[in-house]
């Protein structure tokens, strides 16, 4: 089969379209014929092997699985011996390690039936980013009507879902994004927009009850100044912090400070689970959330798709189709 694979860690130039063996599912997995695969920043982290501390899990010199991609939507080809939830021919979406390929294996508990009103391309844009937004805006960070919510990175994969979810809860949403994206995030439901190239979030006009930072490149001290005295901060992005620990240092400082503050400072590493995918399915079918797709690339041009993610600040998600 065709797949986008790499050897050592590096930039997108280490990726190439290869012919490799079709994977064989374990007992708790299904083999999915990929109809579409999403691309998100987690692909970049695994491709580059940064932050370095993560290589303890990923592989010291190169990724344990050479094929990139997580988000997937497709058709079940075969099922493992212990899988009762799915059968061949089922249309599914979820997370499978190595989805930038014609086939991928995925654990059955990381898949769910494809939303009936979404195409395969739209469904492939949902799993990782949608689950992250749902898990971020839950518990103490779940907005209530008329609360003020700030979404940083609002035009990206996580942010587009977070804006829509917060609006559905009745919150007043301010979106932080780059130039030329104001109309885009307002169409998602944002009331106010901050262009980060012209204005910082601490303008003194507002304090926010909830801040979801899906960008990960602002100091904790700055985020706290924009947060209400009893507000909740969720750090769901870790793009800053250096090559060794990335955003982990900022997250640890937040955990250390939080018990001594009125503010709640938390971080999130999302886990794709069957029950969360079912929540996304319900929200999508109800029209509460709609995937925003920036561009769709064929598998043969997946390296260009990843380079676009690195440099292009896409509006919503990038999708690759075999």
């Amino acid at each position: 089969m065709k797949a986008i694979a790499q050897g050592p860690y590096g930039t997108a130039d280490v990726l190439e379209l290869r012919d490799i063996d079709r994977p064989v599912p374990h007992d708790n997995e299904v083999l999915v014929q990929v109809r579409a695969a999403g691309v998100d920043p987690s692909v970049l982290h695994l491709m580059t092997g940064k932050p370095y501390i993560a290589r303890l899990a990923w592989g010291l010199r190169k990724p344990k699985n050479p094929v990139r991609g997580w988000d997937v939507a497709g058709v079940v080809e075969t099922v493992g011996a212990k899988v009762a939830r799915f059968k061949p021919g089922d249309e599914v979406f979820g997370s499978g390690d190595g989805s930038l390929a014609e086939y991928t294996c995925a654990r059955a508990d990381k898949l769910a039936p494809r939303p009936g009103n979404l195409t395969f391309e739209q469904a492939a844009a949902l799993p990782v980013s949608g689950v992250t937004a749902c898990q971020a805006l839950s518990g103490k960070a779940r907005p209530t009507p008329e609360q003020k919510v700030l979404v940083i990175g609002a035009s990206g994969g996580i942010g587009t879902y977070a804006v829509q979810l917060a609006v559905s809860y009745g919150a007043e949403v301010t979106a932080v994004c780059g130039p030329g994206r104001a109309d885009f995030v307002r169409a998602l439901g944002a009331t106010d927009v901050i262009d980060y190239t012209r204005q910082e979030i601490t303008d003194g006009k507002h304090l926010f009850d909830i801040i979801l930072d899906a960008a990960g490149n602002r100091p904790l001290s700055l985020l706290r100044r924009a947060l209400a005295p009893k507000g909740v901060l969720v750090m769901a992005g870790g793009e800053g912090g250096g090559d060794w620990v990335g955003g982990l240092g900022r997250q640890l400082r937040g955990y250390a400070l939080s018990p001594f503050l009125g503010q709640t400072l938390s971080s999130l590493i999302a886990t794709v689970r069957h029950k969360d995918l079912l929540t996304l399915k319900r929200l999508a079918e109800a029209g509460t959330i709609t995937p925003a797709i920036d561009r769709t690339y064929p598998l043969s041009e997946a390296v260009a798709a990843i380079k676009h993610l690195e440099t292009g600040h896409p509006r919503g998600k990038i999708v690759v189709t075999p």
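Residues 130-267 form a domain with the Rossmann fold fold (CATH 3.40.50.720). The chain has a mean pLDDT of 93.
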